[in-house]
Design goal:
Pfam families: DDE_1 (PF03184). With 241 residues, this protein is mainly alpha-helical. The protein is built from seven helices and four strands; from the N terminus they run ββαβαβααααα.
Length: 241
């Protein structure tokens, strides 16, 4: 599958992917993030190269980013034999083959290619027009058959393995990684407890007084408002003699 790029540009131009892997395509958005519009264009790219159809259905596994589940994308997928399987939130590191077996190798090789280019081109700045050359060089290595198969196996997708994860994998995340089992804590003394209780009592008394003040003030305001309203109505509907 040729790559599909998202460029941080206002308008996309086909020459952005010149020099990249054959069949590369892309789109642009000012921030470089995926949008529903760009993802729909990717779906067309995916259909073209996967040869998906109702007679040749294809499964596409995705994370749950909002751009992946727009009405237009879902309708396009249904019309073209593409089944969308959306992973649960925050599970990509366990269930997404790309996260498990591809991204780490890809990023490492990309950084190496980038460093080599900068050493060979001192004083020059890397632009979007160099990126495709790096990716073309490293893609066959990072996206090797062994890495792809490993990603699907370790995620339990293929071969299917519903016993891959233990009960601990489904437990709630810890709020801290700090070891508190051996830490010593001093319990408050009786004098400090009395002091705290006294402060708490004073705080409640202060809050009670503030509440009473606001209540009296609001009652006064409401009474004055009603009086003003009554006077206004009387003036408006008074019948002249």
């Amino acid at each position: 599958m040729p790559p599909f790029f998202i460029f941080p540009r206002v308008k996309y131009r086909p020459d952005f992917v010149n020099g990249g892997p054959e069949g590369s395509d892309g789109d642009s958005y000012i921030t470089g993030w995926m949008t529903a519009k760009s993802f729909l264009k990717f779906m067309e790219h995916f259909k073209k190269h996967s040869h998906a159809s109702k007679d040749n259905p294809v499964l596409l596994i995705l994370d749950n980013h909002e751009s992946h589940v727009s009405i237009e994308v879902i309708s396009y997928a249904k019309s073209n034999g593409i089944t969308l399987l959306i992973l649960p939130p925050h599970c990509s590191n366990k269930l997404q083959p790309l996260d498990i077996a591809i991204y780490s190798s890809f990023k490492s090789r990309y950084n190496t290619a980038l460093s080599n280019w900068m050493l060979s081109n001192p004083g020059r700045t890397v632009t979007i027009y160099q990126i495709h050359g790096f990716i073309k060089t490293i893609m066959s290595q990072a996206f090797s058959q062994a890495n792809i198969l490993s990603g699907f196996k370790k995620s339990g997708i293929h071969p299917y393995n519903d016993n891959l994860f233990s009960d601990e994998d489904f437990m709630c995340s810890a709020v801290t990684d700090r070891d508190i089992s051996n830490e010593n804590y001093e319990l408050p003394s009786s004098s400090s407890q009395k002091c705290s209780s006294k402060k708490l009592s004073l705080s409640f008394q202060a809050l009670s007084k503030i509440h009473q003040i606001f209540r009296r003030a609001s009652t006064t305001l409401i009474r004055k408002f009603r009086q003003h309203l009554n006077r206004s109505l009387m003036m408006k509907f008074r019948t002249p003699i």
